[in-house]
Amino acid sequence: MKFSFFMMPIHDPSENPSLAFDRDISLIHYAEELDFDEFFIGEHHSGGWENMPAPELALAKAAAHAKRIRLGTSVINTPFHHPFHVAERMAFLDHLTRGRAILGVGPSALVTDKKLFGLNNEQLHPMLAESVDVIVRLLESPEPMDHHGEFWSFEGMRLQLRSYQQPRMPLAIASSGSPLSLELAGRHDMMLLSPAGKNRWRNPAHAEQWKSVEAAAAKAGKTASRNNWRIATSVYLADTREQAWADVEAGIARDMQYFFAIGLKTPYESYPNQPASEITPRSAADRRDWIIGTPDDAIRHIERLQQETGGFGGLMLTTHEWTRSHKLRRSLELFARYVTPHFRGHTRDFRDEWKRLREAAGEGGVKLPENGRRSNLANA
User: For residues 49 and 12, is the Cβ–Cβ distance under 8 A?
Assistant: First the structure.
C-alpha cells in the first residue's frame, strides 16, 4: 500500500505566509525521511486560509532536496487555466523531478474561488472533462493538434517538451463521486483521489464509485487498477487516544469554523441540515471518518476502510495544523514506525519470530509481553 499526503494547505490568515510556505515544503522533506511515497499540494486563490496559488512552484522547490518521493498536484483546477499551460508546466516539472511528477486535476471545490473566476457549478465539470481530454492528447501526441471545443479552441498546438515519463506522466483526479469525474478516471487510466467520509447523501458509496471507474475503463478498452485508488482522510496519532484528542480538539474546532463559513458543512453533518451548533469536533471526526488515536487504532481503521471499499491502493493523509509542529511531526513518526510497515508487510517476519519466542518461553514457565509498543511509545 502507498502512503501519501493531501495538502490544501490550511493556514491561519494572521500568520506570516512566507514562513507557512517554508513549513509546508519542509514537511515534504520530512515525509521523505519517513519513507512516505507521494506528496500532493492543492491550488487556491481566495478565502484567506487556503493560500497556495501555484502548487507546481512549491513542488519544484521541494524537489531540490527531495530526491525519492513522488510529487503531485491536488489539484490544479483546470477550469481556471488553458489546458496547454497546465500540460506544459507539469511536463516541465516532470523533467525537473526526473519523472516523479503526477498531474492531479479537479473542477474546484472552493466556493470563493469559483466566485472569483465567475464560474458556476454547471460549467465546472464540462470544463474539466474538455480540459483533461486536451491535456492527455497534448502529452501523448508528438504532432501539432487542433481543438475546437465548447470552452477552448486552437489550431496547430503541440508541446515542444513532453513529460519525462513516457508515454506520458500519470494523471490523477479528485472526486467525491461525480459520475463525470469517475468516467474520466476510467477512460484515461487516472489515479482516483477519494475523500473518506460517511455522508453519501448525494453520492454513491465508495465501492459503487469504483464500479463506475471499472465500467468506464472497460468501455475505453482498459483495465482499472485498484492500485491507482487513494482514500484521503485526516490522521493524528499519540501514545493514547485521550492524549490525541487533548492535542487536537481545539484546532479541529477552529478549522470547522472556517469550513462552515465557506459553505462546506454538509460533510460534517450527522443528519441533513444539522445546525452547526450541534456539530462537535468528535462528531465531525466520526462523519469525516478521521483517524484520531493510537497506531493500533489507525491500523484497525484502515483495515475497515479496505474491507468497506473492496480494496484501494493507498491512503492519503490530509495535512492540518491542529496543534504544535513538533506534535504533528511526532504523530507522523508514529504512523511511519508502526502503521506503514504493518501494511507493507515489513514487520511480519519480526512479529512471527517474536510470537514463536514467546510461545517457547511460555513452555518454560516464562511469560513475555505480547509486544513492547506501549513502553516504547512512553519512552521514545
Answer: yes
Residue burial 65-87, b: 16+ Cβ < 10 Å; e: rest: ebeebbbbbbbbbbbbbebbebb
CB atoms within 10 A of CB 339: 24
> To which H or E segment does residue 194 belong?
strand 191-195
Phi, psi at 245, each rounded to 5° = -70, -35
The one-character DSSP state at 252 is H
| DSSP letters for 277-290 | GG--HHHHHHHHT-
Instruction: Scan for cell 472552493, then name that residue.
Output: 110
As a whole number of angstroms, the distance between CA 241 and CA 247 comes to 10
Q: Residues with Cβ < 8 Å from 333, sequence gap 6 or more?
A: 34
Q: What's the pTM value of the predicted model, to 2 decimals?
A: 0.94
| C-alpha dihedral, 39 to 45 to 48 to 49, nearest 10° | -20
Q: What angle do CA 22, 196, 103 make, to 5 degrees?
A: 50
Place of cell 512566507: 18
CA-to-CA dists, residue 191 to 44, 188, 234, 311, angstroms: 21, 9, 19, 14
Residues 52/24, Cβ–Cβ less than 8 Å:
yes
pLDDT in tens, the chain (380 residues): 999 999 999 999 999 999 999 999 999 999 999 999 999 999 999 999 999 999 999 999 999 999 999 999 999 999 999 999 999 999 999 999 999 999 999 999 999 999 999 999 999 999 999 999 999 999 999 999 999 999 999 999 999 999 999 999 999 999 999 999 999 999 999 999 999 999 876 788 999 999 999 999 999 999 999 999 999 999 999 999 999 999 999 999 999 999 999 989 999 999 999 999 999 999 999 999 999 999 999 999 999 999 999 999 999 999 999 999 999 999 999 999 999 999 999 989 998 998 888 888 887 777 777 775 544 554 45
The residue written with cell numbers 496559488 in the block is 53
Fold of 2-379: TIM Barrel (3.20.20)
Across 228-252, b (16+ Cβ under 10 Å) vs e yields bbbbbbbbbbbbeeeebbebbbebb
